[in-house]
Design a protein that fits this description.
Length: 246
């Protein structure tokens, strides 16, 4: 089994299409349990790779790895300066009425939740801004879903998931910000039931980091990654354009 799909590689960068259900940093000791440990295995002894951006465990898509300290420093400065344009694909519950929209709502800890890591929209939270454009509305059985192109303009933890849930269109398969947060607790404990899986519909949250665009050492670069088969199959026919085009 390959360690990960490679989108681009040169002396400074390794661009990966991270699979869903893979953490970026290790929670276990084996060489395949996290993305960074797989990267170290791939690059070999003496390598010192650094993840420039990170994705949630169940979010698939583009992760940039710096192979050298100089590249890591340059790339992090780009991220911190907001000079990186990020596009995600999201499949959400319901028919999104607006063709495009902007969600500008502060986010902070959800102290009313039984899940310690959960956040929510709250007036005293940190500024968070998410733009979206509806690609399609489609039907599966009796239910409607929407495929969105989402652009986060800030980088808060779980921002896209929080904002879309607050907007009334949670991401399909999201165990924490979806229809029932108990799904997350039972998933962590390994006791997710078939009934809960049926409510979630998809094995992972349908959020995919599909495009990164920035100027790298004087040249504009665009990296794109196609979603995994379970995402594509559920949204089949929902987008008439090619998946790897902006």
């Amino acid at each position: 089994m390959p360690l990960f799909p490679i989108v681009h590689e040169d002396d400074d960068l390794l661009v990966i299409n991270k699979p869903a259900d893979l953490v970026c940093h290790p929670t276990k000791g084996d060489a395949l349990s996290s993305l960074i440990s797989r990267v170290r295995t791939y690059l070999g002894d003496g390598s010192r790779p650094q993840l420039v951006n990170r994705l949630d465990r169940e979010t698939s898509g583009l992760v940039i790895v710096a192979k050298t300290p100089d590249a890591a420093l340059e790339l992090r400065r780009l991220w911190e300066a907001g000079a990186v344009v990020k596009h995600y694909l999201a499949i959400v519950h319901g028919a999104v009425a607006e063709f495009e929209g902007r969600i500008e709502q502060p986010v902070g800890p959800d102290e009313g939740s039984c899940v310690a890591i959960k956040s929510r929209v709250r007036a005293d939270g940190a500024l968070a801004v998410t733009q979206f454009r509806r690609q399609s509305v489609f039907q599966r059985g009796a239910d409607q879903f929407s495929l969105l192109d989402v652009q986060p303009l800030t980088g808060r933890k779980h921002q896209i998931r929080i904002h879309l849930s607050h907007y009334g269109h949670p991401i399909v398969g999201d165990k924490l910000y979806g229809l029932d947060e108990r799904c997350y607790l039972d998933f962590v404990q390994g006791s997710l039931t078939e009934a809960q899986r049926a409510v979630l519909i998809l094995p992972n949250q349908a959020l995919h980091a599909r495009q990164l665009e920035f100027v790298w050492r004087g040249t504009e670069v665009i990296f794109r990654a196609v979603p995994e088969s379970w995402f594509l199959e559920f949204a089949a026919g929902a987008w008439t354009e090619r998946w790897n085009k902006p």
